[in-house]
Amino acid sequence: MSLGYAIDLHTHSLRSDGALEPADLVERAARRGVRIQALADHDTLAGAAEAIAAGDRLGVRIIPSTELNTESAWGDVHILGYFLDPADAALEERLCWLRENRGRRIELMVEKLNALGHPISLARVKEIAQGGSLGRPHVAQALFEAGHVATYDSAFDTIIAKDAPAYVSRVGLTPLEAVQLVVAHGGVPSLAHPFTVVGLEELMPLIAAAGLVGIEAYYGSHPPAMTATCLSLAGRYGLVPTGGSDFHGRGEHGAPLGGVFVPPETIGALEARRRPNAAATMAAVSVEGES
Ligand code: AMP
Ligand code: ZN
Ligand code: FE
Ligand code: FE
User: Fold this and answer.
1) Is the minimum distance from the CB of 138 to ligand 1 under 6 angstroms?
2) Largest Cα span, the chain
3) What is d(CA 285, CA 237) in angstroms, rounded to the nearest whole number?
């Protein structure tokens, strides 16, 4: 039985803010007819090996990926990095720093929520995350359980919204740095859900010049006009239109697995834009030089 499309280039597991173990996520995707899936957990490649093992069993090709949420005046700029190497130690060091920053940010948000009269415990938030990269979704779940919000999703529009007093901004990468990080490590960067960017037309030439390869034109909550805008930007800057569900398995956010049509030629077009992992090559050269 196949209910979805064959390609899904944007999914999340329990290694970040999704609700399913990587193997369970791949299994559910396979049942929906997905054959090529990017596991794009925030700031981590920790689920890649498990997803690949499940994918081998179920006939799903897994593309090891990550999604880097950035901090800048451009609104929510999220950069997807495709074809990254889970064994790249220098990349893992950067991702580890981002995850530590996530942890401190969530700690501060929990402190603020407590001070503002919405008590939740950091221990419960961490328990919900089960070791995955911490994020607001885990806080939203804790707030829902404690009865501070009517639904999981409504937390994002109320007490942990960007303009709410409990919100703490991110310490992390700028959009340009995120694109450059992916490129330096032999990955292929794509701009996720461009409708969340503030000033998209102005940002595009900057991130295109930094090495952006793709733009997520196909996305569940994109109105047709937004997809058309993305396709026109893809034409202007020579980008590959990408797409995916952004499935988390929590609340109403994202589409079902395989729920968004992605053209089959997308994968070949992305692969054709892969470049060697310059950061790993440089690290290897310096190790050789030392011996
Ligand atoms: P954070 O990166 O910690 O600020 O949390 C934002 C993340 O929450 C995004 O990457 C989304 O994937 C996720 N999320 C889940 N549900 C929602 C929602 N209803 N509204 C906004 N973001 C959501
Ligand atoms: Zn997320
Ligand atoms: Fe995102
Ligand atoms: Fe996402």
Assistant:
1) no
2) 61
3) 34
Cα-only R_g, the chain:
19
pTM of the model: 0.96
What is the tens place of the pLDDT at every residue in 270-291?
999 998 898 877 777 776 655 4
Q: Ligand 1 within 6 A of 24 CB?
A: no
Instruction: Give the residue, by CA position, lying nearest to ligand 1 atom 19.
Output: 153
> Over the stretch 126-165, which tens digit does the pLDDT of each residue have?
999 999 999 999 999 999 999 999 999 999 999 999 999 9
Q: Which of 170, 216, 253 to mutate to test the pocket of ligand 1 (most atoms within 8 A of CB)?
A: 253
Domains, the chain, ranges and CATH?
A: 7-94+171-286 (3.20.20.140), 95-157 (no CATH)
CB of 251 shorter than 6 A to ligand 1? yes
In tens, the pLDDT along 223-257 reads 999 999 999 999 999 999 999 999 999 999 999 99
What is the Cα–Cα distance from 88 to 107, expressed in whole angstroms? 29
From atom 8 of ligand 1, which residue's Cα is the shortest distance away?
Answer: 137
Nearest ligand to residue 10 Cα: 4
